[in-house]
Specification:
Blueprint lengths: L10 E4 L5 E13 L4 E11 L4 E5 L3 E5 L4 H7 L4 H8 L7 H24 L2 H24 L2
Antiparallel strand pairs: 1-2, 1-5, 2-3, 3-4
Helix pairs in contact: 3-4
């Protein structure tokens, strides 16, 4: 089993795809047969274009940590701080933040679908609020890491 080197919110590149993706959730599946035992790590992803996808951990490459993703998408350049953050091993302290971001992403994506199907501005406002909360969670995490 490969080591998990990413956390929810990180920006990754998936083999075979041009789009960059944010990690929504990380799922570990323990598989056991009469002959062998192994684990597979599967990632639920949302593309920067809103497209849903999934990938196995072996197929992803870390582009940058969540707290730097906006800057990277804006500039297309990895700074020294981003490279340093990429080398840092994620800790269990991120688990609650990961769960909160995952839940908020679900809310935002559901609201986006409902807005597209109904046109009701309340759903658009709910989507915007969820993304704003995600941004705040990431910024709070940055403050704890300084």
């Amino acid at each position: 089993m490969r080591e998990i080197h990413v956390v929810a919110g990180d920006l990754v590149r998936v083999k075979g795809y041009v789009t960059l993706y944010y990690i929504d959730t990380i799922n570990t599946h323990n598989i056991e047969t009469s002959d062998a035992k192994w684990s597979e790590i599967e990632l639920d992803l949302t593309g920067v274009n809103g497209e849903y996808n999934f990938a196995y951990i072996e197929d992803v490459e870390l582009v940058c940590r969540a707290k730097y993703s906006s800057e990277y998408l804006r500039t297309g350049t990895l700074t020294t701080a981003m490279l340093k953050a990429n080398k840092a091993v994620p800790t269990a302290a991120h688990e609650q933040q990961v769960n909160n971001i995952d839940e908020l992403l679900d809310i935002a994506l559901d609201a986006q679908k409902l807005y597209k199907s109904t046109g009701l501005s309340e759903f658009q406002a709910q989507e915007k609020a969820a993304y704003e909360l995600i941004k705040n969670l990431i910024e709070m995490g940055e403050g704890n890491g300084k």
